[in-house]
Design brief:
By secondary structure, the protein is of the alpha/beta class. The protein has one domain: Rossmann fold (3-Layer(aba) Sandwich). The protein has six helices and seven strands. Strands 1, 2, 3, 4, 5, 6 and 7 form a seven-stranded mixed β-sheet that branches. Helix 1 links the parallel strand 1 and strand 2. The longest helix is centred in the last third of the chain and has 22 residues.
Length: 193
């Protein structure tokens, strides 16, 4: 078990998925958070259904409400973040982008946006080109939000990833997702020290 230098297990927040229940990007995120928990972290999941319920971000009329407050409070308290998105037309999905835009609500936070936090990036897309461009776009957004993308980013195929029990079919895909999660937890612990 990895102990947080402050005596509390690090909090890793996962956000991602699609509006479709059981999407490959959300399944990968759930497995990444399970890896973070196995490494001693506490986790919080904001999956596709939650993200789809957020209002469209409007900088001139920021939305406040209990769901938005819960989301922003979790990211504010997070020691690390994992973002999992499908690759849609060469970039991240609208639902994930909107959630990231909503982090503008942390602009005046003590640690604005993703400041001082590792952010693991997971992409599930229908081809190598879409995976690469989506991962690059996600890393750019993480940088813009003052986060530290982990050295390794997972790129997964969009179909045939999981068996009937919900486990990865290919051990390389499991390795990718576990590596992202382990790097986020490791950085969170080191940063806190």
């Amino acid at each position: 078990m990895t102990d947080h230098p402050l005596g509390v297990a690090p909090l890793i927040v996962g956000l991602g998925g699609t509006v479709r229940p059981g999407s490959s990007s959300e399944k990968a995120l759930v497995l990444a958070l399970a890896t973070a928990e196995a490494a001693g972290a506490r986790t919080a999941l904001f999956g596709g259904a939650f993200l789809a319920g957020l209002p469209i971000y409007n900088p001139h009329d920021p939305f406040c409400g209990p769901e938005m407050d819960r989301f922003l409070a979790a990211v504010s308290a997070a020691d690390g973040v994992i973002v999992s998105t499908p690759g849609y037309h060469g970039s991240i999905s609208g639902v994930v982008k909107n959630a990231l835009d909503c982090l503008e609500g942390l602009r005046d936070d003590a640690r604005p946006y993703f400041d001082g936090r590792a952010v693991g990036c997971i992409v599930s897309a229908g081809g190598a080109q879409a995976s690469g461009s989506t991962l690059a776009a996600l890393r750019s957004i993480v940088h813009a939000l003052r986060g530290w993308p982990t050295p390794f980013g997972a790129t997964l195929g969009a179909s045939g990833l999981f068996d009937e029990a919900g486990a990865f079919v290919d051990p390389r895909d499991l390795w990718q997702v576990e590596t992202v999660a382990q790097q986020v937890v490791e950085f969170a612990c080191r940063w806190a020290a």
